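so my prof wants the structure for this chain in the C-alpha cells format not the other one, which i didnt know existed until like an hour ago. anyway here's the sequence
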Amino acid sequence: MTEPVLGEAAEGDAETDPYVIALKQFDYAAGQLGLGEGLRGVLRSCKRELCVHFPVRMDDGSLETFTGYRIQHNVTRGPGKGGLRYHPQVTLNEVRALAMWMTWKCAVVDIPFGGAKGGVVCNPKEMSRTELEGVTRRYTTEITPLLGPSSDIPAPDVYTDEQVMAWMMDTYSMHVGYTVPAVVTGKPLSIGGSEGRLQATGRGCVEVIGEASKEIGLPLAGARVVIQGFGNAGSVTAKYLALGGAKVIGVSDSRGAIWSARGFDVAALMAHKRAAGSVVGFPDSDEIGPAELLELECEVLVPAALEGAIVAENAPRIKAKIVAEAANGPTSPEADVILYENGVVLLPDILANAGGVVCSYFEWVQCLQEFSWSEDEVCHNLSGFIQRAFHSVHNMARERNTDMRTAALMLAISKVAEATTVRGIYP
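here's what i got, hopefully its the right format
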C-alpha cells in the first residue's frame, strides 16, 4: 500500500489499515453523540505529524538510513502521551491510528494527557545493542522539537523497553543541558521510573476482565484463557489471571502458538520464554496454528499482539465469552459487529490496556514532584482509575444500548469535545 502524503485523508483496506479503522470508529461514535461537522473535523485530524529520515553507523562500519515518525493527534487535554515502537512494518497510518487511540484512551481513564505515538521502521531482532542505541539517540535528536514534559512524553511499546527510554531521556537531557526525568515514562527505577510500571498494562487488563466477569456472572476461577502474544502485556495478564484461579490453555508469540487442555504453569512458561526466546517447545504442550489459537474453546480471549487479529472472516468462529484487547487495534469494525451480535463482551483497547498509560501518568507525576510512591500505592491507585473507567463505560453502554467499544469512544470523544469547546478556537 502506498502511504498517503502527510495531512491527506487515509486511504487503505477498511479491514487492515489501522487508520481507516480508527477513523471509522470515530465517525460512528461521533455520529451517536451528534457532534457538529466542524468539531468532528478538529477531533478526527492529527495535530502534528513529523516524519524523519536519519543515518546510523552500523557495527560493520556501513551507514544505514532509517525512517521514523512522531505524531501528536490531540493535545487539548494535556501533553501528548504515547509509546514508541520499533518494528519492520511500522507505517505512517499505523502511527496515526495509535496516536488517535491514545487520545481516547487517556480521556477514558480521565488522565490529563492527549494522544501521541512514535515508530521507527527497523528490525530490532537483527540489531546489536550498540546499533539500537544509535537509532534511539539519533531518532530522539530528530524529534526533540516535539518532546518535553509539558508537550510530548514517549513510553515503551512494541520492541522497545526501559533501556530505550533511558537512552531517550539521556539524549533529551544532553540537548537541554540538565536532567529531565519527566520527558519519558517506563524508565528504569534508578533514573526516575515508577514501581509497578512493568506490570501495569497486564494488571489493568486483569482488573477490566474481573469487573466484566462480575457483570455477566462468569466466575474467573476455572475459566479457560487464551493469550495471543506473550510479551509484557500478555504474559503479565496471564500471570495474574492464573493467580486468580483461571486456567491459561493457549498462548502464542511471534514464533508460534501452543495449547494444553490441562492448562499451563504460567510461571514455568514465562521462565521457558526467557530461556528459549519463545513459548514454542514448552514441555507437555501441543503446537497449533496462530489462527487456530484464536478460535479455541475458552471463556476469555486476550489479543495482546499487533493490529488486525480478529476480522470479519474469523470473528464468527470466536468462542470466547469475553475478548479483552491488551493490544491496540486487534479487532476490525466489521468483526466488532459480529462479536456483539454473537453476545461476546468485547473490552476495547482504550479501556482494557489503559493500565500502562495510567501508571505512566503516575510516573510522570512522581518525576515532576521528585517524590516516589511505593508499589502498593501505585497498584491501589491504578485499581481505582481502572475500575472507575470500566463502570463509566459500562454505564454508557447500558444507557445507549450499545457495545463497549462504542460506549468507550463516546465517553472519550465527549470529554475531548468538551475541552475543545471550553478552550475555544485560537485566535
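also thought this was worth mentioning. Confidence is low (pLDDT under 50) at residues 1-10.
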